Structure formats: structure tokens, C-alpha cells
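Appendix C reproduces, verbatim, an entry submitted by the partner laboratory led by Prof. M.T., so that reviewers can inspect both the input and the predicted structure.
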Amino acid sequence: MKASDLFVQALENEEVEFIFGIPGEENLDFLDSLSRSSIKLILTRHEQAAGFMAATYGRLTGKAGVCLSTLGPGATNFVTSAAYAQLGGMPMLMITGQKPIKSSKQGQFQIVNIVDTMRPLTKYTRQIASGTNVASRVREAFRRAEEERPGATHLELPEDIAREETNEMPIPASLARRPTAEEKSIRAAIELIQKAKHPLLVVGAAANRKRPCKMLRQFVEQTGIYFVTTQMGKGVVNETDPRFLGNATLSAGDFVHRAIDHADLIINVGHDVIEKPPFFMHAGGVQVIHVNFFSAQVDPVYFPQIEVIGDIANSIWQFNEQLKIQKDWDFSYFEKVRAAGEAHYLVGADDERFPIYPQRLVADVRRVTEGKGIIALDNGVYKIWFARNYKARSPNTVLLDNALATMGAGLPSAMAAKLVFPERQVVAICGDGGFMMNSQELETAVRLDLNLVVLILRDDAYGMIKWKQANMGFDNFGLDYGNPDFVKYAESYGANGHRVERAQELAPLITECHKNLGVHVIDVPVDYSDNDRILNREIQELSRNI
């Protein structure tokens, strides 16, 4: 068979469902082979969006999402997507084309060394130089992408290699189990938990990848230990649980940080250094148990005393088997923190001012989804409000990026979520700045007949940076812009355009959009004028008095 046929068979062997991307002339043999396969090509309008979709597929399934581009400019458009997947721990394989490497008459036209370009952004990057290497390269790329810590991989398939004849066959995946934590580390951790007076559980990004939610939920129910989450740990344990203290969204001074400061032991499950630290360690301070697939990356603010290294779910299962409730644990202060935080989350939830207040926005979205749907957040100041105020019931129902924190990923991520879970309600929540970075994918969503709701939070500015600008005492400068008529813009792609003109209209409109098939784009003017006062001053003052 042709090497491109083998490549596609190898992808089928890895149970690939979709390939997202834009082919070029260097991919035509591969495209011909793909046309006879079970894999569905999702043709996008920009390679970056294809990469975001592939990465999100990997995040939701644990299997590497696959994206495709041609050489040169097509491949370089994957750079941000590669960083998005690599930092976010999302398994992804990028396939790029290349001119013939054995004999080419086009000189250096469009040729960029993509393998070297991808080296610092991926776990594995290779050019396939022979048809006999296709099967092993594909298997290794998937193995690397999916094993802990997951991330991005890349294979370059030159045009002449794609049409080479080969007698090789796909290599099946081996049976591999993650190692479990050593007994002595489990015992040491349990002894420390039993001796503590105010133990606290912190759930981070790595706990969201292999979904050890059942074991962690049992741990919380069995012990009564209170917990907090990082932004990328949201939903691993149901955040409507009465022992949930909040999300470590802000850098310091929030209600949740008062609980962290009070704890004498932190059980830190799934800590990943790509997120801003939810707490800072110092000599003689709080003791920390690090529970993760891999050992701690020590720095001046993180140096745990005990490390439990192995499959997270198994480690927590071992805790559950051996740990008993301690009568001298004292959670009274945590109860006060939770009560104060819950009261503050409700402030503004029914505010009728317009443009809409961020707290009202979050409350209305959650009223509609009931925490059961999937919201995909682009990057902007609204992400802080959703991370703090939106309670997630289950893993990966709040898709936000607190790793690369790139703009432009919200709409493609929502589209990938809808492809993976077509029966679930999915809402893309984008600022006007982030939306316009990949807004052309509305055409893709319409062409795919997706039932999708897209909220565009319009403040006609880069709102996150305006908030930071105000916090630093600078004058408002250089961050305001104009926008198209988003209703007409949506309709020009064949989507349904809507505009909110009163705060009370938003929740009923989202509900109505979910009932009607198709892509629905809602222009939502938003009022961020109180961000600096609330997030930088009010919360710190209120939490200080607990």
C-alpha cells in the first residue's frame, strides 16, 4: 500500500474519529487515503481553530485529538494550538505536510523547519523519512501524547514519502497500566492527615485528566474534609457539595485563601505548575502532601514534605481504605469561610442593571444549564467571574484555559465539545476580542449542523487588560475598539443572531435557543465597571473580617 494508506490505517488503529484541519497540495495523497477511511474530516477555516478543537477533543476523551495542515504557513498556524495543548495537558497529534525531501525542484519555497519549530512546544516531533517508519512513528506519537503528563506531538509527512510503497502494518497499542504509589508513602501521608487539626484538600489540573472524581468524592464524604479547587480542577468533585470552599481564582485575598492560610495541612491532589499557585509555601509554614502522577517540581514557593507518586485515583482509594475520621479535626473556621463566600457569590446575581452585571451573567448561565451542560470559556476577565461563581458538578463541564490562557479558543472548544457530546447543552462564552480571533468558525459550526449557543460578551475593549490597567493606577489608554453588528454578522454565516437589551432577557433567550436547532449567537453587552472595586478591594476587606 501507499505510505499514506498505512498512515490512515494507523490512525484508525488508534480509534481516531475526527481529523480537524485544512489540507494543502502536499497532503493530497494523505487526503485521498483519508477519503476511504472511517475517519471524518472536519474542514475548518483556520488551522489554529483546528488545533484548539483537536486539543479539546483530547481533553474531553483522554485520547489524542488529531489535526492536519499543509507545510509552511499552514503548519506555523499550529504553533499557538501546540502551546495550548502542551501547557494544558491535552493529548493532541499535529500532522503537517512537506515538499518532497528526496528530490524537489522548488528550492526553499514555503519551506520552514517545522520539526525544529515544534520541538520546544511538543513532547515529540519527527519527520517521517521513509514509508517503513510510518507505523512506529504514529504509535509513538500517540503513546507520548496520551501518557502522563499528556500534551502535544507532531509528525511531518513529506509529499514523496506519502506515496512510497510499503509492506508495513499498523502497530497495536500495548497494554500499559500506570504505576501505583508505594505503601510507605501512603502510610506516611495518612499519619500526617490523622495528626492534623485543620486539614484541607486542594484539587488541581491533573486530577481532571484521568477523572479520579469517584475516589475524591468518596474521600470528601468519608472524611468530611473541606476542599478547594484550582481553575482547571473545577468539577472534579461536585462543587455544590457543602464542604466546597471555593475556587482559587484570584492570586490572593479571596475567601478561599483565608481557608488555605488557616489550614495546617494541605492535601494537594493533581498540582500542576502551569497554573498560578493556589498557595505559597514558606519555611516553617503549612505542611503539604503532594499526590500526583509525577513528583513535585520544587521551586521557592512549593516544596512538599511528602510525595505520593502514582495513579491519583488509586492513591486516593488507598487513602479511603485506611483513613478514619478524626474526632479532633476542627473545621469550624472553614464553615465560617464557606458561609461568607456563599453570601458574597449571591451579591449581584439578580442585579437588573444593563449592560448586564458579571455576577448576573454567571448566575443566569448556571440557572439555564443547571451545572449539567458544558460551558467553554474564551480568555478574558469574565473567566474570573465564572471560575469563582459558577459551580461545576462534574469534570470538564467548565472548559477554561488557565495554562496558556490564550484568546480565540472558546468557540472552537465549544464546537469540539458538541461533537464529542452531541446530546448535551453546550455554550461558548467569549469576549468580543476573543470571539473575533476565530469568529470565522461560525461557518464551520453551521456547516456541521451543530446545535450551539454562543454568548459574545461585548464591552468594546480588551476588558481583562483594562481591569489590570485600572488596578495599577494607570489611565485608560490603548484598549478600546469597535465591533461589527454581531446579529448581522451571525446571520451572514447562516447562524441565528440575537441581541439582549435588558438583563432579564438573557436566561429565557438562552433557554429558547437551546430548544431551537442550529447555531445561535447572542450579543450580550456587559458592565465591567465594578471589577476593580470588587475583585481587588471589596473581597479582601470582607474576607479579612472572617
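The chain has a mean pLDDT of 95. Additional entries are available on request from the coordinating office.
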